[in-house]
């Protein structure tokens, strides 16, 4: 039991921090531009495939730097020559633009790398067991993923709160006209933030690619839960995204490890429902079986009880 708790906690925090790497960029983009970027998970996928391709030529470590820079550059160009031109027509065209962009990126990935998973392997320098918990060997690469996520989180907070660039960005989020009046190029700040946001998604893709399956539909697998994180945490709230990421990561990881059902819970009290009884099938469904829908149940509850999210101020 203790082994299950420790391993599930580690996996939950790791998954939560991976979600935060994605959600942080999406949150910054929404805070500044007021649009939910439906193509954000596609930049995550693009980072994984760029990381795979570059690693074939130069190795994993250069790919960890080069791939996010390339994806961030593409993101900046998308904002400058695409989203900025659409922005003047309102939010609906922006959403349609990013929605279509997600399909374009997926089709381009399939044309170049195909529909089958690619062999994006864990680097040899990290392909060993970091430590053993009871009978479970915990991979060193997962600890590396966790360390990278924590370092980026700390760096992001430091830049936004301790540097001149961070102060300008924060001011542009809420008072863009005042920032422009002070002589700063607000459109350039927008482009910078969009590029950095997509680069954060690409970093998540590069470090997650070897641990997860790198394939052309990986954006569709992670995209929906990413928006759950942003809404649960509160649209525009970086702290909320962090809390929601950890919460959803832990909830889903622990749920997958629990095989108990309502029937198991009430059996000691002599209450039993057979397969043919009222709601008999639901009575015997285990927590692990409903684990994939738990984040969405949490989303519905948040929207009912606190529409602004855990730490948000904007109405969702």
What does this structure look like?
With 316 residues, this protein is mostly helical. The protein has two domains: 18-216, no CATH class; 219-316, no CATH class. The chain is 71% helix and 3% strand. A two-stranded antiparallel sheet has the order 1-2. The longest helix is centred in the N-terminal third of the chain and has 32 residues, at 2-33. The chain is globular. It starts with a helix and ends in an 11-residue tail after the last helix. The model has no long low-confidence stretch (mean pLDDT 84).
| Biggest β-sheet description | 2 strands, antiparallel
Order of helices and strands: HHHHEEHHHHHHHHHH
Query: How are the strands of the largest sheet arranged?
Result: 1-2
Strand content: under 5%
The Cα radius of gyration reads 21 Å
- Determine the fraction of residues in helical runs and give it as a percent range: over 70%
Query: Which runs of at least 5 residues are low in confidence (pLDDT < 50)?
Result: none
| Number of continuous helical runs | 14
Averaged pLDDT:
84
Gross geometry: globular
Give the total of domains.
2
Q: Output the structural class.
A: mainly alpha
Strand tally:
2
N- to C-terminal separation? 39 Å
Note the topology.
Elements: H1 2-33, H2 40-58, H3 60-87, H4 91-113, E1 129-133, E2 136-139, H5 140-162, H6 164-174, H7 176-181, H8 186-208, H9 218-233, H10 238-256, H11 262-266, H12 280-283, H13 287-290, H14 294-305
Antiparallel strand pairs: 1-2
Helix pairs in contact: 1-5, 1-6, 1-8, 1-9, 1-10, 2-3, 2-4, 2-8, 2-9, 3-4, 3-8, 5-6, 9-10, 9-14
């Amino acid at each position: 039991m203790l082994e299950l708790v420790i391993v599930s906690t580690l996996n939950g925090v790791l998954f939560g921090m991976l979600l935060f790497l994605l959600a942080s960029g999406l949150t910054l983009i929404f805070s500044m531009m007021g649009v939910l970027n439906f193509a954000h998970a596609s930049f995550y996928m693009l980072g994984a495939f760029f990381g795979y391709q570059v690693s074939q030529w130069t190795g994993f470590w250069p790919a960890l730097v080069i791939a996010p820079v390339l994806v961030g550059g593409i993101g900046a160009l998308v904002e400058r020559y695409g989203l900025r031109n659409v922005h003047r027509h309102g939010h609906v065209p922006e959403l349609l633009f990013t929605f279509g962009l997600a399909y374009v990126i997926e089709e381009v990935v399939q044309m170049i790398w195909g529909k089958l998973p690619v062999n994006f392997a864990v680097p040899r320098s990290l392909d060993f067991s970091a430590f053993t918990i009871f009978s479970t060997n915990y991979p060193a690469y997962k600890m590396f993923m966790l360390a990278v996520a924590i370092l980026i989180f700390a760096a992001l907070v430091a830049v936004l709160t301790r540097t001149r660039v961070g102060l300008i960005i924060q001011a542009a989020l809420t008072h863009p006209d005042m920032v422009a009046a002070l002589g700063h190029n607000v459109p350039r700040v927008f482009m910078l933030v969009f590029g950095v946001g997509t680069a954060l998604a690409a970093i998540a893709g590069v470090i997650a690619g070897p641990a997860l399956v790198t394939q052309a539909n990986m954006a569709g697998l992670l995209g929906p839960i990413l928006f759950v994180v942003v809404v649960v945490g509160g649209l525009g709230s970086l702290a909320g995204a962090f809390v929601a990421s950890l919460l959803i990561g832990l909830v889903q990881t622990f749920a997958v490890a629990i095989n108990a059902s309502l029937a198991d819970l009430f059996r000691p009290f002599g209450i039993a429902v057979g397969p043919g009884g009222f709601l008999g099938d639901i009575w015997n469904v285990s927590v692990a079986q409903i684990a994939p829908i738990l984040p969405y149940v949490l989303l519905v509850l948040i929207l009912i009880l606190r529409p602004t999210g855990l730490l948000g101020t904007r109405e969702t």
